[in-house]
Design a protein that fits this description.
Number of domains: 2
CATH topology of the largest domain: Porin
CATH architecture of the largest domain: Beta Barrel
Structural class: alpha+beta
């Protein structure tokens, strides 16, 4: 037998966690769909029973589960030949991340109204466990399984019996004890995971499946954090070695000892050359911490220089600090990400979460967490095929959670992300630029509120009117993110500091159900009336052609500013809440200003910024007809070597007295105040705690206090 080294023994904790996930998913799948999603033998027995009972629908569901489980297994086996030829230190977390996506998709389809939802649920869960079974099948030369126990109990008992043989040596007994500990731990973890998974589904129903996804996400983050810290320590040791005087006799002795150690060390490898857990005690701590506080996920970033997308992502998804030399959790993909960036192809995968509590309100205390996974690709065809000035952009997302603003009855949403649970293609477009970007045209599917009435300092605030776009833009049915609609836009820069742009788009459906008219985002829909939005902007301190909808640390350097006036018009039919007679046309006007007030160094970003915005629409037809926002942002207020900001925001939401129902007391003006601090204490962490106060909630007399935080993970 082979004795496991200390490093490989620490790898066993990875398998305990994966065995827990395997038991969790298998039990949850059986409770929800009466199918073993990680066990072929049990599912074959159930399929045979379905044949005898002539239950062909159940039979097909179980057979599809087996087929997808084997598909995941075979795909890993085929990919091993490529893994052996390229660095794979980030491949294992990539496989676990795919599992997170598949388990999340399984929950989404199970709670949808699709006819084959049980079959799709079983397929996603089986594929996830098939990938896990193929990717994680060996530890220190010992064959293990983390999705089923068939054969492992026999191996455990056989090893225990051989342990007491009279012919075994001390080394064999040590190896036998290690194998028993490993297999026994995996067996116990699997049983515990099955118990917890069944209990979670019995208590919470379908949302209980998310427990496995959260655990996998915590493991991915913990593994990569450990790997990143190990590499940093190696770099520090290398620097110390270079500074050490040479020619010392102690150095020769150290080299000899190291050579002897390399000869004695057993050559044991994980099957896929992963070996993440080099520090078992620290990994266990990170693992448990992430399980308890998964919303504080540590974003580890890559070691390549990532080119910023040509147009930043909207509001909460925009990159505050860029992606720098440590921009992605999964690293450089063996150099592939760098090669793609040099060819003009940039990928971005991120997770954003708003976790909020109402500390004081008329309603009972409630915790609401809104979560969003987004994937984006930007292509510069100039670098790719020589077509200068031609660009492509596409982004898709999954989002879901609790909407605290709807629960409290607020006009001002505490989260700039919360809307409706969905999984869809958000937006895509093709863009062409001429004359050094003085003329730009864009066509595709994108949201008006991503570019018109959008708050320039949105990344520095949490609540919606300042963390994304002016909330009253929806009165004209202007599309927002993510239910984007077909659109086209042209932008002209006639002067160095002046731009004019206009956009024609399909308004959201008159039934005011934006997510129902194109549920997947894959097939453009023209259900709404064509409407237009236009804006003129003045940009002191920078070229108008370089200004984007949302700023970041780089673009806010110096005394720059942005002053905007815009209008949206929808010629469709609108009905006042107090009248059944439809009226043609509705419009909204807005004014916005964002300006750097003071800088410690005129060439840097540290200092004070201010922002102001106001919109107005006809009070005779729009209930929410005026909105005012104002805010201050202090860049780098803390004397630390990390990026940090502190922001104070104010929102004033007024309701029209013209549509007040008879006999009802007049509306109060809802007012909200927010203070937050954005912190980037480590290359792998971005955290934004916030406190909000609301007066006259929903136009009434109640008050509310909300506390929480935002976290962001860049994959």
């Amino acid at each position: 037998m082979v004795v496991m080294s200390k490093n490989h023994w620490s790898d066993s904790w990875l398998y305990f966690g994966l065995a827990f996930v395997g038991g969790y998913c298998d039990a949850a799948g059986y409770v929800l769909a009466k199918t073993f999603t990680g066990h072929i033998t049990g599912t074959l027995v159930l399929a045979a029973i379905s044949i005898a009972a002539h239950d062909w629908r159940t039979f097909l569901r179980q057979i599809s589960g087996i087929a997808l489980f084997l598909t995941g297994l075979v795909s890993i086996l085929i990919s091993e030949r490529f893994i052996a030829r390229a660095p794979s230190r980030f491949l294992l977390p990539a496989v676990m991340s795919v599992q997170v996506v598949l388990i999340s998709t399984a929950y989404f389809v199970l709670t949808s109204h699709l006819a084959p939802k049980l079959g799709l649920f079983v397929g996603c869960m089986s594929l996830a466990l098939g990938l896990q079974n193929g990717a994680f099948s060996q530890s220190g030369g010992i064959s293990v399984h983390t999705t089923y126990l068939t054969g492992m109990i026999t191996s455990l008992l056989k090893t225990k019996t051989e342990r007491h043989s009279s012919q075994t040596t001390a080394r064999d007994k040590l190896a036998s004890d290690q194998k028993v500990s490993l297999l026994g731990g995996i067996w116990l973890a699997f049983v515990l995971g099955a118990t917890v998974g069944a209990a979670m589904v019995f208590w919470f129903g379908a949302p209980g499946v998310f427990g496995a996804a959260l655990l996998l996400l915590a493991m991915v983050i913990g593994q990569c954090v450990s790997r990143w810290r190990t590499e940093k320590r190696k770099e520090n040791r290398g620097n110390c070695t270079e500074d050490r005087p040479r020619g010392d006799g102690n150095e020769v002795h150290a080299q000899q000892s190291h050579s002897q150690y390399r000869v004695r060390r057993p050559l044991i490898r994980l099957r896929m050359q992963g070996g993440f857990c080099r520090h078992g005690r620290k990994l266990r701590f990170l693992f448990l911490l992430c399980c308890a506080l998964y919303v504080f996920a540590f974003p580890v970033r890559s070691q390549i220089v990532q080119v910023e997308p040509q147009e930043p992502l909207p509001g909460p998804d925009s990159h505050e600090t860029g992606q720098g030399p440590h921009g992605h959790l999964f690293g450089d993909w063996g150099g592939e990400r760098t090669r793609l960036a040099e060819r003009g192809v940039n990928f971005d995968f991120q997770y954003v979460s708003d976790s909020l509590w109402n500390l004081k309100s008329e309603q009972k205390d409630r915790f609401a967490s809104w979560n969003r996974f987004r994937g984006t690709v930007d292509i510069d065809f100039g670098a790719l095929i020589g077509q200068q000035g031609l660009y492509f952009h596409a982004t898709a997302l999954w989002q879901g959670g609790g909407n605290l603003g709807a629960y409290l009855g607020l006009l001002t949403s505490p989260s700039g992300m919360s809307s409706a649970n969905t999984c869809r293609l958000d937006s895509w477009w093709i863009e062409k630029r001429w004359l050094d970007e003085r003329v730009t045209a864009r066509v595709g599917q994108f949201a008006g509120q991503d570019f018109y009435g959008a708050q320039h300092y949105a990344a520095s605030f949490i609540f919606e009117p300042m963390g994304y776009a002016l909330g009253n833009l929806f009165t004209t049915l202007e599309s927002f993110d993510p239910p984007s609609t077909p659109a086209m836009e042209i932008r002209v820069v006639p002067l160095h500091n002046l731009y004019v742009k206009s956009m024609v788009l399909a308004a959201l459906a008159a039934v005011r159900s934006p997510f129902s008219q194109n549920p997947t985002g894959l097939v453009p829909q023209f259900n709404g009336t064509p409407m237009s939005v236009s804006e003129i902007g003045f940009t002191p301190g920078k070229k108008a052609s370089s200004v984007r909808a949302f700023d970041n640390v780089e673009t806010r350097k110096g005394y720059s500013g942005l002053y905007q006036f815009g209008a949206s018009y929808n010629p469709g039919k609108f009905t006042s809440p107090t009248s059944a007679t439809p009226r043609s046309g509705n419009y909204l006007l807005y004014w916005m200003a964002s300006q750097a007030l003071w800088r410690v160094d005129p060439r840097e970003a540290k200092g004070l910024d201010a922002t102001f915005a106001y919109d107005w629409s006809p009070p005779s037809i729009n209930r929410n007809n005026t909105l005012l926002t104002a805010g201050l942002r202090f860049n780098e207020p803390l004397p630390l070597h990390i990026h940090n900001t502190m922001s104070l925001g104010y929102v004033r939401n007024s309701l029209s007295p013209d549509i007040l129902p008879p006999g009802m007391s007049s509306f109060k003006t809802e007012q909200g105040v927010e203070f937050n601090a954005l912190l980037d204490p480590l290359p792998m962490l971005l955290l934004q705690p916030v406190i909000q106060y609301y007066a006259n909630v929903g136009g009434g007399r109640n008050r509310a206090v909300v506390f929480g935080f935002r976290t962001k993970v860049e994959f």
